[in-house]
Amino acid sequence: PPPPATLRVRVEQVDDDVLRDKMIASIEEMTAMLSDILALARSGAGTEARERIPLRELIGELTADYQERGKDVEIGDIADAAVLARPMLLKRALRNLADNAIAYGVRARLSVVTDGALARIIVSDDGPGLTGEQIKTLIEPFARGEQSRNRATGGAGLGLSIARDIAEGEGGALALSNRAGGGLDAVITLPVQA
After folding, report:
1. Is the pLDDT of residue 32 over 60?
2. Does an H or E element contain 10, and which?
3. Which of 17, 121, 142, 185 is least crowded, fewest Cβ atoms below 10 Å from its Cβ?
4. Is 60 exceeded by the pLDDT of residue 63?
5. Is 21 helix (H, G, I), strand (E, B) or coil?
6. Is the model's pLDDT at 59 over the cut of 70?
7. How far apart are CA 91 and CA 76, in angstroms?
8. In DSSP terms, which residues pair with 190 in a beta bridge?
9. What pLDDT is recorded for position 42?
10. Is beta strand 108-115 parallel, antiparallel or unpaired with respect to 173-178?
11. Do the Cβ atoms of 118 and 192 come closer than 8 Å?
12. What angle do CA 16, 103, 179 make, to 5 degrees?
């Protein structure tokens, strides 16, 4: 089959506006799903070396990147902590969480809290939150929340699975929890690196 980019070029020539937009949305969904599947396949097998990553720096770069693209991503309180991880993978995990927060929870706010020997990287949104059942199922590959938390085009919810796989691969964990005042916190916990 032709690659999605080729399909996209062909579809641009369709005259019917509604049909064309639907077809483009399907191609974009397919492309996103393919890139997620590839990332899931690679997340355990990267050749990238682990290094000491100061979280303030990493989150600063990530947030600046989103803000340049006009996305509603802010920096909250960032504890002065570093972790040992593969930078590209950790960035990918945080990007997946921030993308979800923007798509389903209005905006993303990134903060870091240290708790003894652990650093908690928190991606908060202002969305409707999730039920306990959704929290359990959403982290599994291909699981999706109800419509209100679907990707814009209803794609497979691999983003969280990848973020979880990356967090676990770096010796940490991913957890989702509702905030008392509303909204959802997605938290990657990693050991602090001196």
Report:
1. yes
2. helix 4-11
3. 17
4. yes
5. helix
6. yes
7. 17
8. 119
9. 65
10. unpaired
11. yes
12. 155
**Helix ranges (DSSP H) in 16-113:** 17-42, 55-68, 87-105
Residue 144 — very low, low, confident or very high, per pLDDT cuts 50/70/90?
low
Q: Is residue 55 within 8 Å of 81, Cβ to Cβ? A: yes
Q: Which pLDDT value is given to residue 188?
A: 97
- Residue 18 corresponds to which tokens in the numbers above? 């509604």
Whole-angstrom CA distances from 57 to 40, 53, 67, 78 are 25, 8, 15, 10
> Tokens 């982290």 label which residue?
139
Instruction: Decide the pairing of beta strands 73-78 and 108-115.
Output: parallel
Q: How far apart are CA 123 and CA 19, in angstroms?
A: 36
| CB within 8 Å of 25: residues ≥ 6 apart | 153
**Cβ–Cβ contacts within 10 Å for residue 12, how many?**
10
Determine how β-strand 118-124 pairs with β-strand 108-115: antiparallel
What span, in angstroms and rounded, lies between the C-alpha atoms of 41 and 33? 12
Counted residue by residue, the chain has a size of: 194
What mean pLDDT do residues 16-27 have? 85
Q: What is the distance, to the nearest Å, from the Cα of residue 190 to the centroid of all Cα atoms in its chain?
A: 17
Q: H/E element holding 175?
A: strand 173-178
H/E stretch holding 162 reads helix 158-169
More confident residue, 60 or 103: 60
